[in-house]
Amino acid sequence: MQHIAIIMDGNGRWAKERGLPRAQGHRAGAESVREVMEACKELGVKYLTLYAFSSENWSRPEAEIKALMALLDRFLDEKGKELDKQNVRLQAIGQIDRLPKSTRDRLTKIQERTKNNDSMTLVLALSYGSREEITASARSIAEAALAGEITLDEITPELFSKHLYTSEIPDPDLLIRTSGEMRISNFLLWQISYSEIVIVKKMWPDFRQGDLFAAVEEYKTRHRRFGAL
Q: What is the DSSP string of 166-199?
């Protein structure tokens, strides 16, 4: 298994059940990120993609958005050196230009610092929406065709994939969603065409290494046919 992608759902509900502010749920979820990263390294997974902030999340209350951006800044400040020490490369996908400049600067700094690390790649999906990504890919290919750089016959699924944010990342083998919700939520729609999906009832702040190992064990029982017999 090369790539695990996770929809980290349930932070807000976790906090609400405990009578806490939603921001507290997001903070509690940071510990789950640490646990999952360690578990993936132990399993030899080369790519871990976390759905950290969707393009739709910009419609949330301003106070919650500020809290999420502050939490992201804190994560980058605290984990930057640690990622480098663990030989983990950091990448980000999404409409990164919509993030606050201070956050973009932090991301750029850590990405540059860790670009040669090769034990695992942590991919943060930030201000990410799959429909927007697919639309941008189609627009890019259309522009190339209009400019005479490619012909219609050259437009293939492989070419299309090369115009996505994830052009240098293998498609996920396994997609995990926490909180029990049965939705994809505009996440990696093209890339998960043949991914196995495991839904976990636990809220993200309660998700631990053992839960990831259990999801991987379930994945191992699946027979991936990729549309064949």
A: TTTSPPPSEEEE-TT-----SSSTTTTTT-EEEE
pLDDT digits over 39-60, tens only?
Answer: 999 999 999 999 999 999 999 9
The conformational region for residue 2 under phi > 0 = left, psi -120 to 50 = alpha, else beta, is alpha
3-state secondary structure of 153: helix
pLDDT digit string, tens, across residues 141-156: 999 999 999 999 999 9
**22: confidence class by pLDDT, cuts 50, 70, 90:** confident
CA 138 to chain centre: 21
SS3 8: coil
Active-site choice (11, 57, 153, 186)? 57
Amino acid identity for residue 159 in this structure: L
Any catalytic annotation for residue 117? no
Asked whether the CA dihedral 187, 188, 189, 193 is positive or negative, the reply is negative
Contact at 8 Å (CB) between 114 and 89?
yes
Looking at residue 64, its pLDDT comes to 87
Contact yes or no for 129/53 (Cβ under 8 A): no
Q: Is the distance from CB of 94 to CB of 128 less than 8 angstroms? A: yes
Query: Catalytic residue at 9?
Result: yes
Domains, the chain, in order of start with CATH, read 3-129+171-220 (3.40.1180.10)
The runs of H, that is alpha helices, within 44-170 are 62-85, 101-114, 130-146, 157-162
